């Protein structure tokens, strides 16, 4: 007489073999059969990464992750509201528990705002002080820096990736993080670039170039422009970098800039490196972008100019003349001012040709153009679409010359759609993000948009 098998008593090895033939969702469903099947799923082979979304309402889920998964996964991302002290302190608790993990290889800390609240930050804002207080510094040192240094100083396994999520105060400790790395030769991704709380007045960080000398596996690096010099660039050219992301905020009068010779040497040694240059609320740097920052030998593939409150047409023309073999993306984003309905056509009169058309003609790898906050001539947009055709994967604008009657816009839109090979139209009030609407925009809304936008660049 045959017996009905007791599925709840299958050996763990058998259950594991069954799970290996299922996708992740089906595996999770199967693990709900019983406690025995459930216990078999918590293995490194079935969970390689988790994300903590820190918030009071997520406490139960995050506690479960800490108990069941934190010690077996190799990659963790933590997102949290950095303007909320309760969430910040929950994040530090997670960091301390992760610092004891024996399997963690990659860690990303993603605050949702440029401001990282500490018990003393309200006083600093009230006093309008740019320097961090001793209380704030000690708080960050104890609750953020120490657990990160513990992870970096671990030798088995060594940490391979650290992303500080554009946090300004954490980026100021970048030198400490590099200095305590037990095996810098195993580091593959380091994200030390930041978004400043006050883009016009902030403390400057410093990283000694020799700290990168042993990072022989580094493929992705993000840094602030302030800390880069020719000597550092010469060190970086010895590394197998595939992506270098540089954030520009203010321009310190003592910063000597980066020379054409240094960039030429870097590019000759790293012909495959992508350079992403991002200006973030760089109100002064945007005016000297083409004279003091851009250099002909830069391996520039992506340019982002975010909320700098003006467009620099000479810089756009510079792009088309010097990066015709590398440039793939050009993004220039601002909010629209009601009192100053800015029209790019008034600005380009200083140049011989429309810079966007010239860019589309000369830059053979250009696949993305995004411009918000400025009114564009539809004739030039048609010219851009004809020159790039279907190779232009993204053409995103939100303001079209208002002097043209709306009934005449249809043929322009149809022509651009035909050239791009897909339905196209400018973004309207319903599809445009609120942060790109009419000025003024709250700083916290703008900063959150910036953080989400620039993090898309990082190569995983």
TrEMBL record:
Q: Which PROSITE patterns match?
A: FBOX
Domain of life per record: Eukaryota
Alphabetical list of InterPro entries matching this protein: F-box-like_dom_sf, F-box_dom, LRR_dom_sf
Please name the taxonomic classification of the source. Answer: Eukaryota, Metazoa, Ecdysozoa, Arthropoda, Hexapoda
Q: Which GO terms describe its biological process?
A: positive regulation of protein ubiquitination
Enumerate the spans annotated as F-box domain: 4-50
Q: What's the protein name?
A: F-box domain-containing protein
């Amino acid at each position: 007489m045959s017996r009905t098998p007791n599925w709840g008593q299958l050996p763990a090895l058998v259950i594991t073999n069954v799970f290996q033939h299922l996708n992740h969702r089906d595996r999770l469903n199967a693990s709900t059969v019983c406690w025995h099947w459930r216990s078999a799923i918590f293995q490194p082979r079935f969970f390689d990464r988790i994300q903590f979304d820190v918030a009071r309402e997520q406490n139960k889920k995050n506690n479960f992750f800490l108990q069941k998964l934190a010690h077996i996964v190799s990659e963790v991302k933590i997102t949290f509201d950095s303007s909320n002290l309760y969430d910040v302190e929950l994040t530090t608790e997670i960091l301390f528990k992760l610092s004891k993990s024996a399997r963690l290889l990659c860690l990303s800390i993603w605050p949702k705002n440029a401001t990282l609240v500490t018990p003393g930050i309200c006083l600093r804002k009230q006093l309008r002080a740019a320097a961090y207080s001793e209380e704030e510094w000690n708080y960050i040192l104890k609750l953020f820096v120490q657990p990160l240094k513990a992870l970096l100083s671990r030798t088995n396994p060594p940490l391979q990736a650290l992303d500080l999520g554009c946090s300004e105060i954490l980026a100021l400790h970048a030198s400490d993080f590099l200095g305590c790395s037990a095996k810098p030769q195993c580091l593959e991704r380091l994200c030390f670039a930041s978004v400043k709380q006050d883009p016009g007045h902030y403390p400057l960080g410093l990283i000694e170039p020799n700290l990168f000398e042993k990072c022989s596996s580094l493929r992705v690096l993000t840094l602030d422009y302030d800390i880069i010099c020719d000597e550092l660039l010469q060190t970086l050219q010895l590394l197998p970098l595939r992506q270098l992301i540089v954030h520009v905020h203010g321009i310190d009068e003592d910063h000597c800039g980066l020379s054409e010779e240094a960039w030429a040497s870097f590019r000759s040694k790293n012909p495959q490196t992508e350079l992403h240059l991002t200006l973030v609320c760089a109100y002064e740097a945007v005016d000297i972008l083409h004279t003091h920052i851009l250099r002909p030998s830069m391996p520039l593939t992506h340019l982002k100019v975010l909320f700098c409150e003006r467009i620099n047409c000479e810089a756009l023309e510079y792009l088309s003349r010097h990066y015709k073999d590398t440039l793939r993306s050009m993004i220039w984003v601002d909010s629209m001012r009601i009192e100053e309905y800015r029209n790019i056509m008034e600005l380009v009169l200083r140049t011989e040709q429309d810079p966007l058309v010239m860019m589309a003609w000369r830059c053979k790898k250009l696949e993305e153009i995004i411009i918000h906050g400025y009114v564009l001539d539809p004739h030039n947009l048609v010219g851009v679409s004809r020159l790039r055709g279907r190779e232009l994967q993204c053409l995103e604008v939100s303001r079209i010359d208002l002097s043209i009657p709306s009934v005449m816009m249809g043929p322009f839109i149809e022509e651009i759609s035909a050239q791009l090979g897909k339905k196209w139209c400018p973004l309207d009030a319903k599809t445009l993000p609120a942060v790109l609407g009419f000025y003024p925009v709250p700083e916290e809304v703008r900063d959150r948009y910036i953080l989400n936008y620039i993090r898309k660049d990082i190569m995983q």
